From TrEMBL, chain A:
It is a multi-pass membrane protein. GO terms for molecular function: transmembrane transporter activity. It holds the Pfam family BPD_transp_2. GO terms for cellular component: plasma membrane. The keyword RNA-binding does not apply. This is ABC transporter permease. Keywords: Cell membrane, Membrane, Transmembrane, Transmembrane helix. CDD domains: TM_PBP1_branched-chain-AA_like. InterPro entries: ABC_transp_permease (IPR001851). The lineage of its organism: Bacteria, Pseudomonadati, Pseudomonadota, Alphaproteobacteria, Rhodospirillales. It comes from Skermanella aerolata.
TrEMBL record, chain B:
This is ABC transporter ATP-binding protein. It holds the Pfam family ABC_tran. It is a peripheral membrane protein. Its main location: membrane. It comes from the Bacteria. GO terms for molecular function: ATP binding; ATP hydrolysis activity. The keyword Iron does not apply.
Length: 305, 264
């Protein structure tokens, strides 16, 4: 694999690390299987690209993309908490609605922002004076964003409020008995999760120069793949390492996919991406169970208790 | 102080499984009193506790704690006033959080939770000191996951957690029922110690008539959603398990007689 391809994989992995962090909050912290991300990722891209095209400041556009993501998370949370719709179904409803909303936002299925100024423009200029190509500047920039997000999230999840959010996911009854308003924490957590996914979408649009309404398909599986790969590689119960695991998992996943697609002898095409992803996630979920049948059985008993 | 007046609770109203769980329960418990609650399955013991904690909102009647009407308050809102320990050791704690994180959750009960660190150096020292009181050596395991502790240890920590936020009321729902006899005795002695030390107003639901008489200052018996026996002081001191059993079957007999009349 060429350096350019590797840098490209790292860049994409870092953008989707933000998705992985969002999925970590919904799936792992809140124990809320949330498919909204398939809609909030292209929503973030659509909002950012449309605003940038309308000559908005790219940072402001990115911020609004995050707010749009947060709003979609709140819609899903409301359907579940307020109207008692099963979480999975609630998130699918939001996801399907967002497809239409994204088309409305952009006014067409895709928007190009190749010549407009993005949040990356000043860094491209800086890179040029330092003799770094755009292909190097992009992953470095996204890495910086990801590191800031990881630091803030780690701080948040170990705060009193964040601890209450984790308790909400682990044992809601206990959390309520300890005075935690579990409803509030689900709203905030879902908003935060989808805001991060919206941010990922906004950065995806700006690093790739376009937003496309179909770019959200399989976002949840990619995010989940990153979380699972991360948990396998970085085994820790310490919050900050669990978050770092999501980032590492996302990059490793991208590189694995890149290698699989580039290896001519396997005969895969770019269009096989989703199949490979699904197989990878299924494999990652199945492997720990079949590695040691005895251990797996003991584990199953422990969880069923 | 707890004052419950004329509590009525019905589950599954309008369905074939409709159950009138509480039928006019009146309960006045002065501050610092330790009340044990007995009754057969479905008598309404857990429902009474649920109504006091906020899990169950009665369709009639009022609940007041220390003079404040809390009838319409939900569980999280009442948590500042009421601490609980559940029957299932798994239910009262978060298994995948550490011991100190569980304690931090309990210590913030009834306060706004902000963005300050949940477990700071000072809190950790405080937690270590408090958990050392249990004499289980857990002060060196604060970072261990709660799920690694035995059922008895978890119940002991749950009891300790109930005292961290200064609430005046403790509700115990058969909190020793899932433990082996010697561990149950340990947890019960710890309960007595903690209740006395903190002067807590306590309701303890138990299936054991022995425990109901051995612990606390007053015993009430529930049957078919009503208080059918309420003994304290001298009268209670003279009671033994057979007396209680006799009362129990007499109450049930009366109930049968009533039903027989109804049917007849």
């Amino acid at each position: 694999m060429s350096t350019v391809a590797l840098l490209g994989a790292a860049e994409l992995g870092l953008v989707f690390a933000l998705v992985a962090l969002g999925v970590f909050i919904s799936f792992r912290v809140l124990d809320f299987p949330d498919l909204t991300v398939d809609g909030s990722f292209p929503l973030g891209a659509a909002v950012a690209a449309t605003l940038i095209l309308a000559d908005w400041n790219p940072w402001v556009a990115t911020g609004i993309a995050m707010l749009a993501g947060a709003a979609s998370g709140i819609v899903t949370a409301t359907l579940n908490v307020r109207f008692k719709i099963l979480h999975l179904l609630a998130s699918i409803l939001t996801m399907i609605a967002l497809f239409s909303i994204n088309l409305r936002v952009m006014g067409r299925p895709n928007v190009a922002i190749l010549i407009q100024d993005t949040v990356l423009t000043p860094f491209y200029d800086l890179g040029q004076t330092l003799g770094l190509s755009d292909a190097v500047v992009r992953p470095l920039f996204v890495l910086a964003v990801v590191l800031v997000v990881v630091a803030l999230l780690a701080r948040f999840l170990t705060s009193e409020f964040g601890l209450a959010m984790r308790a909400t996911g682990v044992n809601a009854r206990m959390a309520r008995a300890q005075g935690v308003s579990t409803d509030l924490h689900i709203y905030v957590g879902m908003a935060l999760s989808n805001a991060l996914v919206g941010l990922a979408g906004a950065l995806f649009a700006q690093t790739n120069g376009f937003a496309d309404v179909t770019s959200g398909i399989g976002t949840i599986v990619i995010g989940l793949a990153a979380v699972i790969v991360g948990e396998t590689v970085v085994r820790s119960r310490v919050i900050v390492w669990m978050l770092v695991g999501c980032v590492v998992g996302s990059i490793l996943y991208r590189i694995a996919i890149q290698v699989a697609l580039n290896a001519d002898f396997i005969g895969l095409r770019a269009s096989d991406l989703n199949l490979v992803t699904a197989l990878l996630v299924a494999g990652a979920l199945i492997l720990p169970r079949i590695r040691n049948p005895l251990k797996a059985r003991a584990g199953a008993e422990a969880t069923s208790r | 102080m707890i004052a419950a007046k004329n509590l009525h609770v019905t589950f599954g109203r309008g369905t074939p499984l409709e159950k009138h769980a509480l039928r006019g329960v009146d309960l006045a418990i002065p501050s610092g009193q330790f009340v044990t609650v007995i009754g057969s399955n479905g008598a309404g013991k857990s429902t009474v506790l649920g109504a006091l904690a906020g899990d169950v909102i009665p369709e009639r009647g009022t609940v007041a704690i220390d003079g404040t009407d809390v009838t319409r308050w939900n569980t999280p809102r009442r948590a500042g006033l009421v601490a609980r320990v559940f029957q299932d050791p798994m239910a009262g704690t978060c298994a995948t959080l550490s011991i100190e994180e569980n304690m931090a959750l309990a210590a913030a009960r009834g306060r706004r939770r902000g963005l300050g660190a949940a477990v700071g150096t000072r809190q950790r020292a405080g937690f270590a000191e408090r958990i050392a009181e249990l004499g289980l050596g857990l002060e060196n395991r604060l970072k261990d996951q709660m799920g690694l502790l035995s059922g008895g240890q978890r119940q002991a920590v749950s009891l300790l957690m109930a005292t961290l936020a200064g609430s005046r009321i403790l509700l115990l729902d058969e909190h020793t029922a899932a433990l082996d006899p010697s561990t149950a005795d340990f947890v019960l002695d710890l309960t007595r110690r903690i209740v006395v030390e903190h002067g807590l107003t306590t309701l303890m639901v138990t299936h054991s008539m022995r425990h109901a008489l051995d612990y606390g200052d007053r015993t009430i018996m529930l049957h078919e959603g009503q208080v059918v026996l309420d003994v304290g002081g001298q009268e209670r001191a003279g009671l033994d398990v057979p007396d209680l059993l006799a009362m129990f079957s007499r109450v049930r007999g009366q109930q049968l007689a009533d039903d027989a009349l109804l049917i007849g």
